[in-house]
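Quick look at the format.
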Amino acid sequence: MTPTAACTAFLKDRRLAVGTLAEVVAALAADPAGRAAQVFEDATGDLVKLGRPAEVARALAPPSPPAPVQPLAARFDLLPRHVVWLEAQPGGPSAAVRRLVEAARRDGTGRPRQARDAAYRFLSMMAGDRPGFEDACRALYAGDATRFAAATADWPADIAAYARALAGEGLA
């Protein structure tokens, strides 16, 4: 995780801080209750384990420069027949990969699934013992925003709102 990763911190049912990991850690350090907060990565819904101050400092160190961009065949472990097939597609390899990615997204194997999984990871940590948790999870994986909202209606507003935000395009 990089210092610029988007994160959200919660203390029990209340959202304490939102921003990059560096901003959230700074906000928690300034708040006496911040030591007890739980921090979640917005992209994955994973709990961020901050650890000891030295570990936090290491996590917040500037990232190393990105590696230079390589040609398609060098970035992916493709067999020669894969490269031949990609190059023969209308629009070339880039267009073919874009079409494959869009097809995976429509089939639920791309971003909508990742969004639902991120919301589920957060819900498991913050709402696993709340009434309606199982109904919320069923609605989440069915992509039913209306049922999800109904199942989470009695939950604290910050938890329900963050779960909806994580689910994003996973809820229709």
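Next, a different chain entirely:
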Amino acid sequence: MANVNIISTEDLKARLDEGGKFEFWNVLSDEYFKGEFIPGSRRVPVDQVGREISASGLPKGTEIVTYCGGPNCPQSLQAAEKLVTLGFANVKAYEGGLEEWKAAGYSVDAQETSAAAKA
């Protein structure tokens, strides 16, 4: 297992408020994605992490923070471990995910997930 750093809700909120420059990924798979995002993030499903890295050409030193649904969701850690095995050293998993983010009173953005919206 790859050694992955964990970021707390408070630290993540502070980084976002500061306008920190990092990749911030919602890694929920299609099966679990409900259309919610933490503001400032984008969707890269866990099963597409390798493809995204290949397509984007991100430098290995890029900071990447992954998150999923909450503390009982393994996908943020799985994605972060995959990134580490791909040679990225500055990776953090926000294991609290959407659940802890919303419980802390922070807002989320929503995206329509219907078939019509994808067309």
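The longest helix spans residues 75-85.

See the schema section for token definitions.
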